[in-house]
TrEMBL record:
NCBIfam families reported in the protein's UniProt record: PRK01259.1, ribP_PPkin
Organism: Candidatus [Bacteroides] periocalifornicus
Reaction equation(s) it catalyzes: D-ribose 5-phosphate + ATP = 5-phospho-alpha-D-ribose 1-diphosphate + AMP + H(+)
This protein's UniProt keywords: ATP-binding, Cytoplasm, Kinase, Magnesium, Metal-binding, Nucleotide biosynthesis, Nucleotide-binding, Transferase
SMART domains per UniProt: Pribosyltran_N
Entry-linked PANTHER family: RIBOSE-PHOSPHATE DIPHOSPHOKINASE FAMILY MEMBER (PTHR10210), RIBOSE-PHOSPHATE PYROPHOSPHOKINASE 1, CHLOROPLASTIC (PTHR10210:SF41)
EC number(s) given by UniProt: 2.7.6.1
Domain Ribose-phosphate pyrophosphokinase N-terminal as annotated: residue spans: 6-120
Protein name: ribose-phosphate diphosphokinase
GO molecular function, one term: ribose phosphate diphosphokinase activity
Signal sequence segment: none
An annotated GO cellular component: ribose phosphate diphosphokinase complex
Transmembrane spans: none
């Protein structure tokens, strides 16, 4: 990537975060507008020239599906307006849970999204905490996969870790929780859940020393909060002194906010890859911004510098 002019734009779903990223980078957010038709169709456009520029489009692809499609339309528009490169900055990569065929006659949604991005002339993808690391292999273009550990590590350092233990609410998060446990030389607690159907946990058991511990539960996302709150309540019933949850993506759909507020969780630490519902009760939430991390990586990518130091562990 040559040193072409960098321009940063945003989709409507991530405008607030994009403004912070652009401010950290030291450039104003680029101007866009969206024409909306009466039937729900919409047409985004750039309100300034992008010819010869490296265009970074910031948009998390959480529901509704319009967030993904707006990103695709903006990427297509940038390419057709003669941008030098188009980089999709997706702090939250939606459809990542559909990373394989786990039963007959279902799609691999994450691969389809990868194909759509390439069809929209995206040259590079920048994202954080993919639900499954192998999704990077779905792309034939560079993928900068960042980790929330860059934010959580200094936050955890500020806590009293005397009686800390690191835990995961399911087997899928074992690698993440184990990395933190090894980094801080603390014990690991494993939870095993039985799920009858999507978003509903039937039963859960925990393995490890829980009594008297300040438990830190790790996951990549919190959706309906059924798993994380069931794990927290289980830890409390086993004698944990306190339980906190840390997750990169606050999807928080359906009864999530109510479940968290009624649970044994004393605090839920998330990033701002997805904005919290302004109408919800968020008194248990602590939000860490990804703005400086993405601004720094955007700068390094545009200058052809290594980003390896932006990975904590």
């Amino acid at each position: 990537m040559v040193n072409s002019e960098v321009k940063i734009f945003a989709g409507r779903g991530s405008r607030v975060l994009a403004e912070r990223i652009a401010r950290c980078y030291g450039k104003p957010l680029g101007k866009t507008s969206v024409l909306e038709f009466s039937d729900g169709e919409f047409e985004p456009s750039f309100d300034e020239s992008v010819r010869g520029s490296t265009v970074f489009i910031i948009q998390s692809t959480f529901p509704p599906v319009e967030n993904l499609f707006e990103l695709l339309l903006l990427a297509d528009a940038a390419h057709r307006a003669s941008a030098y490169k188009v980089v999709a900055v997706m702090p939250y990569f939606g459809w990542a849970r559909q990373d394989r065929k786990d039963k007959p006659r279902v799609p691999i949604g994450a691969k389809l999204v990868a194909n759509l991005l390439r069809a929209a002339y995206v040259d590079r993808v920048m994202t954080m905490d993919l639900h499954a690391d192998q999704i990077q292999g779905f792309f034939d273009i560079p993928v900068d996969h960042l980790y929330s550990s860059w934010l959580f590590e200094p936050y955890i350092q500020g806590l009293d870790l005397t009686n800390a233990a690191f835990a995961t609410p399911d087997i899928g998060g074992a690698k993440r929780a184990n990395s933190f446990a090894k980094h801080f030389s603390k014990p690991l607690i494993m939870c095993h859940k039985v799920r009858e159907k999507a978003n509903e946990v039937d039963s859960m058991t925990a393995i490890g020393e829980v009594e008297g511990k300040d438990v830190l539960l790790f996951d990549d996302m919190i959706d309906t909060a059924g798993t994380i709150t069931k794990a927290a309540n289980l830890m409390a019933s086993m004698g944990a002194r306190s339980v906190k949850a840390l997750a990169a993506h606050a999807v928080l759909s359906g009864p999530a906010y109510d479940r968290i507020n009624e649970s044994a969780l004393s605090e839920v630490v998330v990033t701002d890859t997805i904005p919290l519902n302004p109408k919800a009760d968020t008194h248990k939430f602590t939000v860490l911004s990804v703005d400086k991390l993405f601004a720094e990586v955007i700068r390094k990518v545009s200058m052809n510098e290594s980003i390896s130091q932006n990975f904590v562990f």
